[in-house]
Design a protein that fits this description.
single chain; 206 residues; 10 helices; 71% helix; 0% strand
Amino acid sequence: MARSKQSPATTKTEEASAPRKTLTREDWIAAARKVLEKRGIAEVKIDRLARQFKVTRGSFYFHFSSLKDLHEALLGEWRRSNCAPFHAMVDIEVTDGVQFFSDIVHAWVDEKPFSPKLDLAIRDWARTSKDIDKEVIAIDELRIALLVRAFRKIGYSDSESIVRARITYFHQIGQYALSFKEDPDTRKRYQPLFGDVLLGPLATSP
C-alpha cells in the first residue's frame, strides 16, 4: 500500500509543539556582543534582542537584572579576551626581549582569544562613558609598557624603547581601525619584514 503524504496541517502542528531551545545567559551575551560589534552599544536593546530570539522581555530578566547588567557582562567578555592575556604578562621575568616581543604580538595576531572587533567596539563605547574610557586608556598603557620592557631587554635606551613600542602598538591598532584586509599569503610574506623593521638593528633573532 502506498504511504500517505503528511498533510501541511500535521506538519505545522508538530512544528508548533516542538520544544523551544531554552535560552541561557550566554546566548543573550553572544547575541548582544554581535550587535555591539556591528552597530555599537546604543543598539544593544532588550526589545531588539527579544524579537531576535522570538521571546518576551521576561526571558531576558530571567538572566539579567537590567540592561546595565548585560552591559557589564559585555565588558567582562572584553576584559577576559582582550585584557587578561596582557595582565598575565606583567609578572613575567623577561630574559629574552625578542621572545617577549613575539609573545605580546602573538596575543593580538593569533586572536585566541583576542578579538579585534570587540576591541574596536569597546573603544567606540568609551567615547560615551568616562569609566570605560579610563579602562581603555589603562589597557593601552599596559600593552605599550609591555612592549617597552621587550625593547629595553633587547638593548634600546628608554626613549627609543618607548618610541618603538608606540610605533608597534599604533601600527597594530591602526590595522584594526582601518579594517585592513589582505591576502593571507601576502601577509605571511611580509610578516618577517615587519618583524625586522619593528624590532630594529639590535634584535639578533627576530
